[in-house]
Each structure stands twice: as structure tokens, then as C-alpha cells.
Fold:
Amino acid sequence: MQIAIYGASGYQGKLVIAELAHRAIDMRLVGRNATRLREAAVTSGMVDAEQRVADTDDHDALVAAFRGCDAVINCAGPFTSAGPAVVRAAIAAGCHYVDTAGEQFYIKAVFDTFADEAERAGVTVVPATNDGCVPGDLIAHLLAERVQPVEEITVSHFVVGSAGLSRGSLRSALDTIDALKNGGLGYDDGDWRTGIPARHTSVTLPGAEHPTEVVKCPLSEVVTIPRHVPVRHVESLIDAAVGARLGTPITPEIIDSLPEGPTDENRRTQRFTYLIDAVGRDGRRARGVVQGRDTYGSTAVIAAEAARRLVADGAEPGVLAPAQAYDPTSFLTSLAPHGISWTVTDPDTPTAQH
Ligand SMILES: NC(=O)c1ccc[n+]([C@@H]2O[C@H](COP(=O)([O-])OP(=O)(O)OC[C@H]3O[C@@H](n4cnc5c(N)ncnc54)[C@H](OP(=O)(O)O)[C@@H]3O)[C@@H](O)[C@H]2O)c1
Structure:
């Protein structure tokens, strides 16, 4: 198995290099800048890994750079501008494709644009294989089995610790600032639209005495969950204090002056809790909780596992949501050794899984 990493020179790309190296998976490092690619190979201790240079405006070069690999992990954000060319080239090269995108409109565009192309090429495309979307989407599928028919699914993200965002994440936030300000897409009555009011303004975290204020946030799960769960309403929320910060743009110059991303120490002290709440049409409730540390390290683990499974186990060709491509329980359980725990509970039959 050989996996190409596009955007291998970036902060997230280097974490994916480390993860593939840890799994002894053969890799090809691809990016637009030869010097930065070489530096990434050296700092990651992977000087012998194959390296190819290809820009996103050169389709033939990109296809040639991917050809012969089994899958592509795309870490080159902002995806809204750079992503579609990489998806198109991966499909043309006959490679399965996953990416670390969190940009909601780009993710929806991948489903809307590339489904037929991927199907004809016999490859599987799974966008948004990041720390939030994969576990949230898989757990939503498990919750739906408990409370179907499903009225609503709410996904809420809470991250604490001093890690902050990488420069790449800040650039992606800047590229999608309108969505961050207005809450982006919600899903309601069979379609995705902007401007759908949130049903919830607060969420109570496990073990908390008081609810936490939340606001709409354009998370990837809103795009993927309705593809496999028949549901009337899906919304995504974030801690209100964090939401206010994300909606305040900073300039490209300020972003350029910041460190590449959180230090290893800061990543270790960061904690995330993602809640997935499902309500059935009859009022039954079920909750999924995902907890872990280090959002960028977790994204590297999840993207690597997502690509590896497409190659090793196969999936239907086309553009798929995580729960359409992977067995939810098996994938979620594989994350435990990496410090990502999960539970699914409902008030009537309080069972839990890890
Ligand atoms: N939960 C989530 O939503 C989540 C989690 C993790 C990561 N992410 C996303 O992952 C992305 C990567 O983050 P990062 O911190 O690794 O960013 P980064 O350090 O800025 O790295 C970006 C990488 O993409 C390449 N790149 C950027 N624009 C390009 C273009 N137009 N053409 C070709 N290559 C291009 C860069 O190449 P050069 O080195 O040549 O500049 C670099 O390799 C971001 O979009 C971030 O939002 C999302």
C-alpha cells in the first residue's frame, strides 16, 4: 500500500507523515514547493520517502504525482480554493481520496460535483476525515438506530486548553468568514440552507451542573449526516465564546506572523468533547460523546485510518460520508489506542461503549 500526502509540507501534513510512518505505510510526499517538501521530509525523519512537486493549477502534473498510489490524503487547505483540483486529479489517477477539510461549503461541493466521476473511476472519496466529522458522523449513525424515525440531530463541539489554531486553520477560517459569521449551512426538511435558525442556545456537557451557551457554527457533520440518516433537522453548534472569536477575522499578515501551529506540549494539554444528541419523532433521546486530546494529532490518526481502510477493506465507489464508507463501531473502536474515547447512551437503556 502506498499513500500520497498532498500538502505534506504543512503543519497537518507533517503530522500525517508521522502517523503513516508509525504505521509503516509507504508514502509519497506531494506539494507545490520542492524546498518545503524536502524540509518536511527531513524534519519528519523521512528523507527516503518519494517526493513529487505539483501545483493545483497543473492537472496533468498532479495526476502524474498521484498515479501509482492507492490513496491520497489531502492536507492542503484552504480547501475552498485549492481542494477541488486535488480531488479531480486523485480520481483521474485512480486513487481513493480523503482530506482534512473542515470547510462546510467545500465539503458539500465535493459531494455535489464529484460523485459521478468517482463512481465511474471506481474510487471512493471521503471528504472531512478530521477529528470532529468522522467520529460525529459515525456516532450519529449509531444513535439513529436507537431513536428512529429521527426528528433532529445536534452536534456540539467544545475544545479547551491553550493549543489554539494552526496558521492553516486560520487561513481556512478567513476564507470562509461569511459562513462563520452567519452559522453556515443547516439541514432542514430535506435540504441544506443558510439562515436556518438554531433550535438550541445552550447544551449541558456530561457531568456539568449548568448548561453552556452555544452558537451555530458551520461544522462538516451537517453535510455528511443526512446522507445516511433520514432526519428532519441537523444543526451544528460551538461554545459561544469560541464562536465569537472565530467570527472575528484577523488579517493574512497577522496570520503569517504567527507560529505554524500549536507546540507539541500545547497539543498534549488540549482536550476536546464533541456531543452528538439525537431526538426521535416520538421524543426518545440518545447521546453520543467523543472525548480526546490534541485535535491535530487526532485528525492525523483519523485521516490515516480512513485512507488505510479504503485501500485495505474497500468501500462503494463514489463520494461517501464516513458512516457510508466504514463500519461505525469498528472505526470508532480503532481510535481508542490513540486516546479518543466514545460513548453512546440513552436514558432508557443506559449502555456505554468505548
Ligand atoms: N477539524 C477540522 O476542521 C480540521 C482539523 C485539522 C486540519 N484542518 C484543515 O487542514 C488544513 C491544513 O492545515 P495546516 O495547519 O496544515 O495548514 P498549513 O500549515 O498552512 O499547510 C497548508 C499546506 O497546504 C499547502 N497549500 C496551501 N495552499 C495551497 C495551494 N493553493 N496549492 C497547493 N498547496 C497549497 C501548503 O503548501 P506550502 O508549504 O507550499 O505553502 C502546505 O503544505 C486547513 O485547511 C485546516 O483547516 C481542519
In short: The longest strand covers residues 150-160. The pocket of NAP is lined by residues 7, 9-13, 31-33, 36, 56, 75-79, 82, 100, 102, 130-132, 166-169, 172, 260-261, 295-296, 299 (CB under 6 Å). The chain has 15 helices and 16 strands.
